[in-house]
Amino acid sequence: MTAHPLLPPSGFPTTLHNVLRRAPLWALVATLAACSQPNDDKQAPSQPVSGGTLRFAISEVVKCLDTVQYADRAAGAIAQQYFENLVFQDEHGQIHPWLAASWKVSDDGLTYVFTLRQDKVFSDGTPFNAEAVKANIDYILQSTSWTRTSLLRVESATVLGPYTVAIKLLEPDSGTLEALADPIVPMQSPTALAQGAKQNCSTPAGTGPFKVAAFDQQTGVTFVRNEHFTQGPPIVAHQGPAYLEKVEYRFITDNAARLAALQSGAVDAIEGANVENTATFQADPSITLITAARKGIADVFFLNRTQAPWTDERVRKAFIHAVDVGTSLKTAFFGQYAPLYSPISSTTTYHIDRPEYYQHDEAKANALLDEAGWTGRDSEGYRTQGGQRLGSTFTLAASEVPALVSTVQQAQQALKKVGFKLDIQQLDGASALASAYGWNYAVVRLSYSKNSPDIQRALFHSAGGATNADGSHKSPTPVLDPTLDHLLEQATRAGDPQQRQALYEQVQARIGELGVLLPIADQQTRLAYKPQVHGLRLWPASNYVALYDVWLAPGH
Amino acid sequence: MSWVVFKRHRKGLATLTPLGAHLGARLALWRLATQGLSALLVMFGVVSVTFIALRVVPGDPARLIAGGGSGIDVSEVVLQQIREQYGLNRPLLQQYLSMLYDFGRGQFGYSYIMRDDIGSILQRYLGPTLLLAVTALACAWLLALAFVLWSARGGRLASALGAVVETLSASLPHFWLGALLIMLFSVQLRWLPAVSEPGSVPGLVMPVLTLALPCAGYLAQILRGSLANALQAPFALSARARGESEWGVLLRHALRHAIAPAISASASFFGALISGAVVVESVFSRPGLGRVLMLGVDGRDIQLVAAVVTVAALLYVIANLAADNLVRWVDPGAAHEH
Amino acid sequence: MNIEQPPAPLAAALRQGQRWYPLPARWLPGLALAVLAVLAWAALFPATLAPYSPTDMDTNYILQSPSWRHLFGTDENGRDVFSRAVHGAHDSLAIGVLATLIGLGLGMLCGFIGGLGGRALDWAVTRFVEVMFAFPSIVLALLFITVFGNGAYTTAVAVGLSMFPGFARVIRTQVRVQKNAEYINASVALGRSPRFILVRHLVPNVMWPLLALFTLGIGQSIIWGAALGYLGMGAAPPASEWGLLLASGKNFIYSAWWLTLFPGLLIAATSVAATALGRALESRNRNP
């Protein structure tokens, strides 16, 4: 194995703590790459071995393998195995060639001309070329899923030559290449697309290192090696076909059962190694844990400023300062998540921490509430104003992860100390979604995975306040601030990376100033695996698992 | 079904005259017809209740389809497009009637949440759930019978202890029991797989036990009660007076009468087993209709939920008919009480 | 039958029968009553038993195993599990009793209307009950909670709704058996009013044998409530209803067994005690 130029010198010990701290991603990638270094392996051979079946359990059920039809995170997280994208995004947010060998952006930022690689073939035998790219862009533009939203400002694709294709935009969008690197915007075989939506859910074809052999929405997916695969994106550790002959993905949604499957040896690795089981992972020397923050909007508590009492900026800020996130990170998150002071996660491009807006300060919270006129107290010790009790309701999804359920309850206790009554209401997924888009909630926990800071525009721009016929809104998160809107629009148009960075930093600061949300923690991809697994790594575009470099110690 | 009628009327008519036989056949036909009709009515009611219930609950199917779970920035145009595609913009009555019509023809339609034909979804997942439920019921019966017979012979203490054990096992929440079993048999002892692969026999053991144990406790309670009654009944007394051994009285006379209420109850357990399957299938990551049902409820997929509920109702109706006839066969006297 | 063998004396046969009859041990009803009394006390006056508040958190002492300080240990937020369990008794017993009462009330309504009504009415009611029976109860409960929001009381109603078809069916059968009984005929002959017969004769004679069913229903309701909690549709946190304790503790089943063991045992103990008591009442009713 040869070290790739993108990787820093190896030699990082694969200890838990090193990985768990919010280390920069390159350190993480190095740690993963170090799996094949001699110092990592006690008895197993250090040379990758071809063959074998990896059994891998994931926490979410994939409903459809075509990420354009069903663009949820579960599908995106599995897509790396069989799909590839036009371009590749590294851990710094830089864009590199992948299926496209090179590209040129016109001066007005409206036309992207891609020159494609000529050696790529889809796993069903269909050649990858300009026609295929056009077919994919057309397919995405007529789709109704979130993938369509990722390419919101794309107008059309035009074939310029057998391996040259132009993508035209309606208006300049600095996030276009990032969108094309997103796992939910893959290049699929036009032949497979032609088989119809239903069929393409279970038998899609991509150019990736594996191809789909079997799919069942409840049991899992089986992949077999794509023997014709030649070359992956820049960060991979080898060339040619993948090492693994076969991969069996199992969907195990029950947290305890998933851990039991790993411990009992029923699977070799799991995703969704939940933080509640930290003690178990630490006690079991045969289990290695790797974690990385996903990109996009982190886990935040969002305050709906269109509902009382959040219409008052002072009350919003009192909430933010009253809640003690630091303690929650120590207890509910078992010290495994670093503090976060931004709406976007620590690995998202142009992330910047602004602790001054979010730090825990009970005295400040009390002062703000006094200032806002909530000076009365009722028999239970809650603040009142004009006979009305100060309080609000947290809308909690029924499927919320335990760490966040704990955090909400801890917030409830912290708010009680400043005389604020927070009630908790639990809703099932569909009802929660309806309440979010109807703006019928007061406080909610939200997060959105996306490999670009422009996710903030989709969520926080006032255009999202547009009302549909049924009274629902385009975006679930009303911020409604003209200053922020202007910054977000400018950032989308900014062609120069430095200018873009400056603008997105201002965006994060502005959101802090407005006091509409409280960042809790990154969303992490958490993997745990047994010693026979080597070379497990995450694709930096979204920090989802990539199995191309994985090999199994022989004799297992 | 004539044997049933024969058994039923053997008591009433001294001899089975040709007239009696004729009457019996007419009765059987009549009963079959009414049973069939009421079964159909039940199915119709179940489909209607599902439709109304899922239309009342909040949640916009179009947005669920569009978002794939997230769905920000979906435009009104797209939402409309989806509603049109799936017929969600038609008047409610029309949606309801067309669903009834389709179900009547055996056409279950397309599930937007699972992106597949509902017919083929049912085909795929009915088997595993049925296997689970039937095996669990059989297992529960074995456990309950063995336990009741054992403790019935053990005197007062054994019987009191038996009652406590039964109640205890009927008092175990499925998901906790399942987790405990996984911890013991998969993680500690490593005897059984934590994940129940379809088609694997060792994988079936824990899910079946999880469903069967509480059910066995419940069955045993019923059996114990009716067995006690039967042993006090005049026929048991006369059998004893005739000098039959206690085991003889128990097995030859009492059990036959005592078993009838438990059989009737089994039919409703069968319905409950389907509900239990929802939990057990998710604890053991086992494919099946229970998880399809949850997926459908979560996704407000009326068509899918209605189809699964219809199948569950059909199973329940069949189980009831079977139990009814079984009771008639086992204890002809009991049939008169129905 | 062997005629040579002398018939056993009748008295001996009766004695044999007595031995078969599973009279609960004498101490069992007393114990059951004591357990239920303690639980009822906990439900009504939790503060007298719980050493700590059920919601106060001490984040320096999270996930502590049971000790004299914390009898049932502490949870992931540093709350005392014993205090939470004591305070949870109210919600849990409320779900158990309320759900059973609702189920029994609806069941009695349907059962008596069906049992006493004419053919058409009986047919209609029976079909309705059949429909509700055939409808998977978990779907019914989930949909009800989705519409009316979650909490101990909605859980109780949801569980009660899914229980009533079972009650209705048993009650209807009992009514049909009892209404033709000789004492009813005698009462009619004596010229008693229908209301008198219904209230004084029919209802007690129908309901007494079902007492065990009722007490069993309490345990079953608590368990169903717990299952809804597992599916995320039970009482909302920070309530400490036992089903919720069990469901949230399940996430820590490998590292903190005490979070599930004690609530699980409490659910089982309540159910066993209620059933044992029901049995005792039932048998006293049968042979006074």
Task: Please name the defining characteristics of this protein.
heterotrimer; A: 556 residues; alpha+beta; 28% helix; globular; C: 288 residues; mainly alpha; MetI-like fold; 71% helix; MetI-like (chain B)
Summarize this, please?
The complex is a heterotrimer of chains A (556), B (338) and C (288). With 556 residues, chain A is of the alpha+beta class.
Describe this structure as you would to a colleague.
Chain C: Keywords: Cell membrane, Membrane, Transmembrane, Transmembrane helix, Transport. Chain C: It is a multi-pass membrane protein. Chain C: The chain crosses the membrane at residues 27-49, 93-116, 128-147, 153-171, 210-232, 252-277. Chain C: Belongs to the binding-protein-dependent transport system permease family. Chain C: It is found in: Cell membrane. The complex is a heterotrimer of chains A (556), B (338) and C (288). By secondary structure, chain A is of the alpha+beta class. Chain A contains 18 helices and 25 strands. Chain B has a domain at 116-337: Orthogonal Bundle (MetI-like fold), CATH 1.10.3720. Chain B has 13 helices and 2 strands, in the order αααααββαααααααα. Chain B has a two-stranded antiparallel sheet. In chain B, a hairpin with a 4-residue loop joins strand 1 (110-111) and strand 2. In chain B, helix 3 crosses helix 4 (76-85) and helix 6 packs across helix 9. Chain B is flat, with a radius of gyration of 25 Å. With 288 residues, chain C is mainly α. Chain C has 12 helices and no strands. The chains are: A alpha+beta (556), B mainly alpha (338), C mainly alpha (288). The interface between A and B is large, with 57 and 55 residues.
Give the SSE map.
The complex is a heterotrimer of chains A (556), B (338) and C (288).
Chain A: H1 16-20, H2 25-33, E1 53-58, H3 73-79, E2 87-89, E3 95-97, E4 100-105, E5 111-116, H4 130-141, H5 146-150, E6 154-161, E7 164-169, H6 176-181, H7 190-193, H8 197-202, E8 210-216, E9 220-225, E10 246-251, H9 255-263, E11 269-271, H10 278-283, E12 288-293, E13 296-303, H11 313-322, H12 325-331, H13 362-371, E14 376-377, E15 383-385, E16 388-389, E17 391-397, H14 402-417, E18 421-427, H15 429-437, E19 443-449, H16 455-460, H17 482-493, H18 497-514, E20 517-521, E21 524-529, E22 533-534, E23 537-539, E24 544-546, E25 551-552
Parallel strand pairs in A: 1-10, 1-11, 17-18, 17-19
Antiparallel strand pairs in A: 2-3, 4-5, 5-7, 6-7, 8-9, 9-10, 11-21, 12-21, 13-19, 13-20, 14-15, 15-16, 22-25, 23-24
Helix pairs in contact in A: 11-13, 17-18
Chain B: H1 2-10, H2 18-56, H3 61-67, H4 76-85, H5 92-104, E1 110-111, E2 116-117, H6 118-152, H7 155-170, H8 174-188, H9 201-232, H10 234-241, H11 246-283, H12 289-298, H13 302-330
Antiparallel strand pairs in B: 1-2
Helix pairs in contact in B: 1-2, 2-13, 3-4, 6-7, 6-9, 6-11, 7-9, 8-9, 8-11, 9-11, 10-11, 11-12, 11-13, 12-13
Chain C: H1 10-20, H2 27-44, H3 46-49, H4 81-116, H5 119-134, H6 137-148, H7 152-179, H8 182-189, H9 194-207, H10 211-230, H11 242-249, H12 258-286
Helix pairs in contact in C: 2-4, 2-12, 4-5, 4-7, 4-10, 4-12, 5-7, 6-7, 7-9, 7-10, 8-9, 10-11, 10-12, 11-12
